[in-house]
Amino acid sequence: MSKGVKVDSADKYSLAPEGRDTWTKYMTFSGPGTVTLGPDILGDIIALPIDSATDREQWSVRTSLILASTAGVNGNLVKKEFSLGMFHEQEFNHYTLSGKGIFWLRTYGVVDRVDLGAGEAQIVETGHLAAWTNCSLSPVKLGGKKPSFVEVQGPGTIYVQARKVEDWIDLAKWASSH
Question: Which Pfam families does the record cross-reference, listed alphabetically (predicted)?
Answer without folding.
Answer: AIM24 (PF01987)
